[in-house]
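Review form for a predicted model. The reviewer records the input and the model, then writes brief findings.
Reviewer: anonymous (R2)
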Amino acid sequence: MTSSVARRPKTNVRGVAILPLLAAVAAAAAGCARLAEWAAPRKRATTLAERRPSALKADALMWQTLHGGQYERIDDTLTALTAAYLENPRDAVTAGHLGFMHTWRLSERARLDAVPPTITDHAVLARRYFGESVQLDPGDARILGFYGSLLLAEGKIHQDETLTRRGYYTLRDAIDAWPEFNYFTAGYAMSQLPYDSRRYAEALDFQWRNLDVCAGRKIDRQHPSYGEFMVNETKQGPKRVCWNSWIAPHNFEGFFLNMGDMLVKAGQVETATRIYAMAHLTRDYAAWKYRDVLEARIRDAQRNVVLFRATDLPGGQSQIMVQSRFACAGCHEE
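Model under review:
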């Protein structure tokens, strides 16, 4: 039978209450730990001039691999980049490049004959390295956008709503920092969502807003036209990412391929075919290795509505760009 007398705090031989004392000690220790962490010197980046020869060599290999569309060489590239990072963990560029390579490995997993469960580890590593790069160079809005995208990916993999929300709001911050770049990044990352979800509609709206900020005025959503803006092509300033560049030789074509895919998934087939056709406007179109894919997209747009909405397709079936064999190469392969 339980006594009705209140229990006394546990005491030592001298009558001192032990449990409250232990609680106070634990709280003080926790406070000291937080204080020590807060007072730790911040990890600071080395300057571009201080980058090591190993990092520059790894950079060259990365660009050669990416521009060549050599997915099979990613592991060799990751080895070189990781060695360079371990030699100098304060190199924001190398950290970012590691994030890119791990992202590419994950994104184009459709190239693999069999996709192992461990492919998801690349999301964790990509997010970690992008996070390091953001910490070292918080002014690079491109990396902030990629970091947000990988937070979203991790949230989906682990069914962690906290990570998902953190990723979404990180992407919103990235859009504010560089809309010409990150409207696309955010929309592309969210293009895997269910076609009838509110966030998917927002992702598609991000693509329209990307066109708006690149053109300098609102594009007609029903009868889009972009030819008149081609005279504004530039290699300078924030709008340079609206066009093709050395980093992304077919960025322009890839943008309209993806946006067309997203419109098809939404069931807006007529508008999608107009958007697909915008890729023809660049003088680089004839050299684009994925032009046959785009022409097939225009031909099969109505059929692809069902395929792009599917979540589990047999091998060889059409996939929306973000889930395809050219999710990265569609813009970056020479």
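Findings: The chain has two domains: 51-177, 194-334.
Further findings: Residues 124 and 154 are 7 Å apart (CA to CA).
Recommendation: see findings above.
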